[in-house]
UniProtKB/TrEMBL annotation:
PROSITE patterns tied to this protein: HTH_LYTTR, RESPONSE_REGULATORY
Residues bearing PTM 4-aspartylphosphate: 56
Entry protein name: Two-component system response regulatory protein
Domain spans labelled HTH LytTR-type: 135-235
Single GO term (MF): DNA binding
Response regulatory domain segment(s): 3-118
Keyword Phosphoprotein: yes
Keywords in alphabetical order: Phosphoprotein
Organism: Nitritalea halalkaliphila LW7
Amino acid sequence: MIKTLIVDDEVHAQEYLASLLEQYGDDKFQLIGTCGSVDEAIPVITKKKPDLVFMDIQMPGKTGIELFETIKDPDFSVVFTTAHKDYAIETINKVRPFDYLLKPIIGSNFKACLEKFLDFVEPKKEDQIKNENILSIHMENQIHFVQTKEILYLKANGSYTEVHREGHEPLLASKNLGQLLEKLSPKDFLRIHNKFVVNINKVVTWDRQDHFLKLINGEEISVAYRKSNELRRMM
């Protein structure tokens, strides 16, 4: 089940989205709560860890965009809902949401959004190719298959993830960092920071004083202090 949260300051909008989710979710989406503000949503997100959040943008107090000033590297995908097209453009530039829906939300558009989300959390090709040595990178209009041994590190970029390989341009995957990490071998990959997952086999130096790793291509990646013990065990 895909854990889903609705955040909107208008109760009737919460109820309408909940009814659409029930109508079009095909028992694959579980509504874990509704919130009326960003401040109300933050502890719910922290505790219940949703996979998908439908977030209104213009609300009293903090806007939906401002949520990501508190939660900088979300492990969930967000779909912004707004009556203002200009806000939709602004969110794409600032937050990189999974999608956005313009109000008034039409049922067919909501259904298409759910289907789009299912396409990348339950891809058919991944069911056919279950190989921990291959990672499928879902991009907007195509899927790349890369060997995990080529990966240097992954970097969070809003609801998306940059996949960095030696000698290649980064690929921008339409999944968040946590979702990609689940598909990688824990023997080789470690989340060393909110923003970074590193391939341990590509590390040449660990600077414990300044808290960074140096990779074989010369790049330096920050290590969160709380990850030091876990990193030490793997190294």
